[in-house]
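Lecture notes, structural biology module. Today: joint structure prediction for complexes of two components.
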Amino acid sequence: MRQSTFIVIAISLLLSMSCNSGKHVKSDERVSYAIVIHGGAGTIKKEHMTPEKEKAYRAKLNEALDRGEAILKGGGLAIDAVVETIKILENSPLFNAGKGAVFTADGTNELDASIMNGEDTNGGAVAGVKTVKNPITAARAVYEKSNHVLLTGNGAEAFAQKEGCEIVDNTYFNTESRLRALERVQAKESQGSVILNHPDSKFGTVGCVALDRNGNIVAGTSTGGMTNKKFNRVGDSPILGAGTYADNTTCGVSSTGHGEFFIRYAVAYDIAARMAYKGSTLEEAVDDVIHGTLKERGGSGGVVALDRKGNISMEFNTEGMYRGYRKPNEQFVGLYKNE
Amino acid sequence: MRQSTFIVIAISLLLSMSCNSGKHVKSDERVSYAIVIHGGAGTIKKEHMTPEKEKAYRAKLNEALDRGEAILKGGGLAIDAVVETIKILENSPLFNAGKGAVFTADGTNELDASIMNGEDTNGGAVAGVKTVKNPITAARAVYEKSNHVLLTGNGAEAFAQKEGCEIVDNTYFNTESRLRALERVQAKESQGSVILNHPDSKFGTVGCVALDRNGNIVAGTSTGGMTNKKFNRVGDSPILGAGTYADNTTCGVSSTGHGEFFIRYAVAYDIAARMAYKGSTLEEAVDDVIHGTLKERGGSGGVVALDRKGNISMEFNTEGMYRGYRKPNEQFVGLYKNE
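The predicted structure, tokenised, for the full assembly:
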């Protein structure tokens, strides 16, 4: 008996140590609110950063979390917290979503976004929009004001405009740094390099998952996709079940990474399915998908997720992921593996 | 002990009886090949059919199965069987895919298709193409010749053309009966009717799942979507995990029905997840999703599916589903609940 007690204590200690890494944050009792965000996973290393750039990222992540937390603290809805938080990330040129989205091979910006509400397990998404200032607002309009889940291209733009989303010229999204990234990728491509693993070529998606005081979980994701993308390629971000998923009975998830893998392995839904069918905890489900299924097959990226008790996971199999969370009296922002 | 033996025998008898309904077909040992198809689920009732029309549907389903079975019997690949079988259904005006696709609100035809290979759990899909004669061939090209999973609109068409898919004028897809269906739905809409449940407004997707002699499972789906669709709406058919899924370790699935529900509940992947995580049989997983998850939430439709042993499910929660299968020395074609 003594030995087994010792083992239990040892395991508990090990678990609590792993929680302190900032990747998984446990809640023993249901918290009154929780919010977690990402600004993309990828080759994010301290040695590539300037102190100014790092400061700018941390400040913007905190600004976004401030906004979402204020809504949730005030008794607001998870869906409002997710949309307003993502709008801040979309409006910042630091992230590959909205302003600052990467360029397609044609030199334009094509944006995808989705949102899902765990209360009714319904959602909305847009893919390939070029003129909607905040694609997450168009995704919300699809959810709230149409019978559909996914609208694409010109049709999605016409719908967003009809529903009052702010429309901008495609040049609004342009930034000098993303244009340079396109030029670098196209130069590599013309030399015959395999560009798939080029650090400029993907990642930078933004996402948010929030739990409100009513116990509702909402998840949202927004992206500019892949630098130099061709043929109106669509990744996982606008696909419910791949880039975004929410169900109040299990969890909410927002993905970032090599989208093709996230579609093939239905990553966001798979985390919920492991909780529902195998009885996995959020932490186990996220670890198994990110470090198991995806890593074994070469699918790089990460997710942020939370469950109905407010347990939080921010897990990635890349060098880093822009990320952060807030709960009552708790906050965290990190960029690299070691925060 | 005697009593438990009796119970086992009774349960076995009940199970074997349920297999004779033509919805679930069990294989005790792995068969050398199997193929199952659907031509859409919906309000398919004997009283709405003429004997000629019924004969035409049964003949076309058998023609498609003949083609796929010949490939598999000859030792061919599951992917070839799926593509060639679906091409026959796409080329027939009887089904809402390829020639005979339903019309969008603009009076055009926009087609979606996807294919997934259970050997490498990779696949390809196109959404919103207007000029590719056989969208399933474009989906295959995305799988085999690109690093992407989902291409859309003009980009998908440009890619398909580059890869040698046959290109036709959009008017090729037009049929008189689908134009009449558009007119009926638009007339109802102008009267303010809720058109969502109009029998003309959805369904008719085609799909195929095949198991070849090497144990590889491939699934494919092709559709014209929803009559009177607007805003470049995309349903579940081009979404891996929703409309189509294949994994040699579990099963292959092709969906048909009210696509928005199939996306939200990741229907095709969910069947595989229940087998992998809960230990459900194919039959249990399909029943739980079609008659549980979907029906409880108002999501109408069905799936055809098979597992690595060649067990087959053709299950739907609608009035009927055009469907059929072949295995060595077994064949079946059905339209209504009672075949």
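Point to remember: The longest helix of chain B spans residues 51-73.
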